[in-house]
Structures are given as C-alpha cells and as structure tokens.
Amino acid sequence: MPELPEVEALVQDLRGRLVGRAISRVDLTAFSALKTFDPPLNALHGTLVDEVTRHGKFLDVDASGVHVVIHLARAGWIRWRDEVPALPARPNPKNPLAARIVIDDPDLDVQPGLDITEAGTKKGLAIYVVRDPQEVPGVARLGPDPLSDDFTREALAEILEREGRKQIKGVMRMQSIIAGIGNAYSDEILHAARMSPFKPANSLDETELQTLYDAVRGTLGDAVRRSAGLAASQLKGEKKTNLAVHGRTGEKCPVCGDVVREVSFADSSLQYCPTCQTGGKPLADRRMSRLLK
C-alpha cells in the first residue's frame, strides 16, 4: 500500500506534470471506484489544474476549485502516459484501469494523461470529486501529519497518553490518530526506535518518547528525500529496496544480523527483529499476540 513517502513523491511528480494544464476529459472504467456524484465527473472537463497536494495517504488534484481526491488503497497506483488513446476508455474486467484523466495540451500533437489503476480482485481504490477535500470522510477524520510543523514531540506524547494501553503498532497505523503511516513504515519506525510493536502506547519514558519521535521524523523524512525526483514507475522499487525489516521475513537484520521474524494476522502481518526490538524474545505468531514469557 502506498504510504506517506510514496504519495508525497507522487504529489511532487504530478505537480510538475499537471499544474497549469487543462483537463480534457475523465474516463471512468471502474464505476465502483467513484464514491461521489455531485459534482459530476464532467464538471472537471475544461478545468485548469491549480495544485496537487496530499492529505495523509490521499492525493488531491485541485482543478479550478473542483477536487479529485484519490485513495490508492492496497493495490492502486498512478501511471503517467505521454500519449493516451483518442477514444475514451471503456470498462474491461481484465484491465486494471479504473479511471483516466486526459490532459489537453495545444502544444502537443497527442494527448497525455494519467491512468489510475488497481491490481487484483479485492477492490479498495476510491475516487472522490468534491468542492472541498473535507467532504471526503477519510480526509475529515485524519490525525496530524507526522512531517508537519505541528507534529512536535509534545504532540506525540499527548497522542500516546490518550491512546492508553493500546499496542503502539496499531496506534501508529490508525489514520485518525496519525495520518499517512501504514503497515510498512510503522514496522520500519519501530525497528529504528528499537521498540516492540506490542509495547503499550502510554508506557514510554522520556528517553523512549524522544527516540520514537526521532524515528518517526527520520524514517519518513529520509524516505521522502530518497523518493524526491523519482517518477511514479520508480517509487515501488525504491521503497522495497530501502526497507530494513518490513517484507523481509527470514532475512538478516541489517543492524544486528539476527533473523527478521513475522507475526501474521487475518489480513496482514508485521515484521520485526527480536534482538533489536524485543530483548531477544520472539513474539507469538497468532492473533492477539503477546511477548512469550
């Protein structure tokens, strides 16, 4: 799933490609992906793209006051095309294309565009056409952005105290608590902080709090800097190459050399290093796991 660093890189890439250019049309091929009806899709036709921004994991294209807000979910992605077919795209169950935004460029003989795709059979991609991004329920519920100036050490301390005995891994992933961090980067942040994913949120002492705060800002900030300037087609590979523990079950921890282990749940899993994070103790690989004693 694209998380804050990848969505931020997409924003930077698309900002350079779209701002100041007109939208010719929008083709919708996966009707279930569109979650709104007012304004209609054709309200975007002939609009000028003013800005491309991000709200947590949500991508926001502002076109003359009409916003296309996109959540890529687990298997969604965006691909820039220097040339799209002249005929509108049509629904095709064998094609991952969900929607296409076609750009009108009078300086070119062809029309470029943006393909919004989703692989697999489990569909979670969501597209909203709204006048205000706050009309999107997921955006309205977002917690603070961990790379914003407002996300201070004190703000993190208040969040953790408020969440009480909840496991810190779950707290890091909850978008209404902190925006933009998902399964992968929560694993990476907790590994960098040398902290168990099941540690209670409100149990951190002052040193641990500072360490976690530094890990959040450092891990996400480094990922954003590495991704800056990369095209959308390069972002997935960049992310995977630089992960220390997430998705690396059975491999050696790059810090201590211990074997990276996994805890599996019904629809997800987490990865961690026992030596770095749990005092050498493995976590029970079952739902509602706790440290083995």
UniProtKB/TrEMBL annotation:
Cofactor(s) needed, names only, are: Zn(2+)
Q: Which GO terms describe its biological process?
A: base-excision repair
Q: Where is the FPG-type domain?
A: 244-278
Kindly give the Gene3D superfamilies that the UniProt entry links to this protein: 1.10.8.50, MutM-like, N-terminal (3.20.190.10)
Start and end residues of each Formamidopyrimidine-DNA glycosylase catalytic domain: 2-93
Record's keyword annotation contains Metal-binding: yes
| Molecular function per GO | 8-oxo-7,8-dihydroguanine DNA N-glycosylase activity; damaged DNA binding; DNA-(apurinic or apyrimidinic site) endonuclease activity; lyase activity; zinc ion binding
Instruction: Tell me the superkingdom of the source.
Output: Bacteria
Xref: CDD domains: BaFpgNei_N_1
Q: Which UniProt keywords apply?
A: DNA damage, DNA repair, DNA-binding, Glycosidase, Hydrolase, Lyase, Metal-binding, Multifunctional enzyme, Zinc, Zinc-finger
Keyword Transmembrane appears in the UniProt entry: no
Q: Which InterPro entries match?
A: FPG_cat, FPG_N, H2TH_FPG, Ribosomal_uS13-like_H2TH, Znf_DNA_glyclase/AP_lyase, Znf_FPG/IleRS
Q: Which reaction does it catalyse?
A: Hydrolysis of DNA containing ring-opened 7-methylguanine residues, releasing 2,6-diamino-4-hydroxy-5-(N-methyl)formamidopyrimidine
Q: Which family does it belong to?
A: Belongs to the FPG family.
User: What protein is this chain from?
Assistant: Fpg/Nei family DNA glycosylase
